[in-house]
Fold these 2 entries.
Entry 1:
Amino acid sequence: DIQMTQSPASLSASLGETVTIECRASEDIYNGLAWYQQKPGKSPQLLIYNANSLHTGVPSRFSGSGSGTQYSLKINSLQSEDVASYFCQQYYNYPPWTFGGGTKLELK
Amino acid sequence: QVQLQQSGAELAKPGSSVKISCKASGYTFTSYYISWIKQTTGQGLEYIGYINTGSGGTNYNEKFKGKATLTVDKSSSTAFMQLSSLTPDDSAVYYCAREHLHYFDYWGQGVMVTVSS
C-alpha cells in the first residue's frame, strides 16, 4: 500500500493568516491526490482533486499544488469557518486508496 | 442536490453482525460507484471497498475481506454494508461516499457502530 504522511499533525494559526499543510506519498502518485476538510462532528467534504483542481463550491482561498511524492494544501486568509481537520487521499495506486493521518487546524 | 442518507447508530454485541444502509438521491444512482470508509481516532480513515451500483460488482481492501459485505438495491437507490463477526476493533464511524474517478465527491453523514458486551 502507498503510505501517506501528513504534516503537521496539528496547527494553530490566526485569522487572516496563510496556512500550508503538506502530504508526502511513499512513492510517485502522479497527481492522483485529493484533499478533504472535516469539521467537528461532520463528514469529510471534498476540497481539491487531481492535486490542484478546486471542487465545485469550494472558496478560492483554498488551493492545492505539488507533484511526484510531495503535495500541499494552502489556505489563504484563514477564516473562522476553516477550523477543521484536513486529510489527503491518494488514488493513483489501488488497492487500496489510502489517506493521510490528518492535520487538525485551530485558531490561535 | 446530491445526498447520501445513512441509517442510524448501531450498538452490537461481539460476534454479531450489523447492516448499514446508504440511500442516494439527487443523481443517477447507477452512474457512480459507492465506496465505504471507516474512521477511528487511532487508525484515521481506512478504505473498505466499493460496489459498482450498476452491476453489483465489488472490490474490497484486502484488510476488510471477510469482514465487510457490500450489496446494492438499485430499485431504491440504496447501498448496504454488512459487518460480520464484530469485535471491539470494529467500533468506528462508517461512511458511504460517492466515488468519482477514484476520489469521493459526496459523503454520507456517517454511522457510529459500537461493539460492546
Note: Chain A touches chain B through 22 residues (CB under 8 Å).
Entry 2:
Amino acid sequence: GAVVSQHPSWVICKSGTSVKIECRSLDFQATTMFWYRQFPKQSLMLMATSNEGSKATYEQGVEKDKFLINHASLTLSTLTVTSAHPEDSSFYICSASLRLATDTQYFGPGTRLTVL
Amino acid sequence: RKEVEQDPGPFNVPEGATVAFNCTYSNSASQSFFWYRQDCRKEPKLLMSVYSSGNEDGRFTAQLNRASQYISLLIRDSKLSDSATYLCVVNGGSQGNLIFGKGTKLSVKP
C-alpha cells in the first residue's frame, strides 16, 4: 500500500513556459503533501507543504508566485512552475502523509524537469 | 552548523564487507529519525526508522545517540545491490517536517 504517483516523469520545455506536475496518492487519502526539489549531488530541499483545502506553506526562499501549489483533493496535489527558466531545471519529488507532517511520508517517483 | 550532516563518501567496499555511516543533526528537539536509500535518478525509499534503543533489520543496524545528536547505520555482509546513496533524515522543520542530509554514497564492488 501507500503508493504515490507523479506525472509526468520527465519534461523538457522552453524557457518562459509553464509546467504542471501532478502528484497523486493512489491507495490512501493524503491530508498533507510535500514538494521537494533536488539539484545534482545535493540533498532534497523542501519547497512547500500543502494541506488539502488550504493554502500551501512555502519554505524561506521559495517564491510562491513562481511555484503554484494546489491541493484540491485528498488524493491530488499539483505544482506549476510558472515561466520556467534554465535554473529551475531540477528533480521535483512529491511525498504524501496520512495526516500530520510528522507521519511517515511516501514519496512519488519524481519528475525531472529540463528547461532549455 | 548544517541541520543534518553526513560524510558524502564515496565508500567503495568489496562484497561481504561491513560498512558504517554516520550522521549528526543540529536540532536537539528532533523526535523522529530515519535512514532512506536513494538510487541514481530515483526517489528516496525508506530503509528504516531509528529508535533510541537501536534497532536491527536483517543486515542493517541503526543506532541513535541523542546526547551527541548522532545517528549511525551499519550494513553487514554488503551486497552489490546495496550500492546507493544513503540519506540521513531527521524531523525538525518548523512544522516537524523532514530534513534530509546530502547523503553518503556507497559502492559495493564484486
Note: The longest strand of chain A covers residues 90-97.
